[in-house]
Write the structure tokens for this entry.
Amino acid sequence: METNDHILLGCPFARAAWFGSNLSFSMPDGESASLPTMIQNWDKMISLSKQNWSPEEVFLRAQWAFDEYYSLTRHHHHHGEESQPGSILPPQLTWKQPEIGHMKINCDAALPLEPTGGGLGVVIRNQRGEILWATSIPVSFFDALLGEFWVVRSTLIDAKDLELTHIIVESDNATVVDTLNHQLPSLPVRAMGFIQDIHSLANQFETCQFVHISRGANQVAHTLARKALSLASKTD
């Protein structure tokens, strides 16, 4: 029977997930995977440079990711949908084409572990899934939430420049989407400037929707945002 340590740290998928994360952590060969040992030897096993995340913070972020995946899959099964044979992700975890006459805009922000700046990624696609616009934008921000609001504002500015009229803006940050849809009891004060700008810009479109999606459905924008971390200027 598989143990929790093996599932979370030792199996090939878990090892790949840890290594592919921002931590770039790789379990040393020949060592047994153990959560207590990992936490006790945190400083020796993982180097986090200038931004020191505690083990609790890292596992909390992992819990957030799991909660998002669980809520989406639970919704999927609740509605009686069946996964297609051979599919890796349920349908709602993949990008979907917008309705005819609408443009779908996916956006994401990336912030490295070291406080050296950040990156924004935006991709615009039509109802056939064709990419009309894609950009990576290196910017300087040190708060992940502000970066997520920043990229939404940049998205709307690009959409106005392209003279789009009916848009659907997708983000994998639930706080941002809920805030813009007036679904939170209080607004993040530090982002008020961005929020006001976004609402002002949104009112200039005939229709503008803000939709929360999973990271899997936002992969192209995420990749563009990560690409921006290595750029000196905006690229289209």
About this structure: The chain has two domains: 4-70, 95-228. DSSP finds nine helices and five strands in the chain. The first helix runs from residue 4 to 10. The chain has a mean pLDDT of 77.
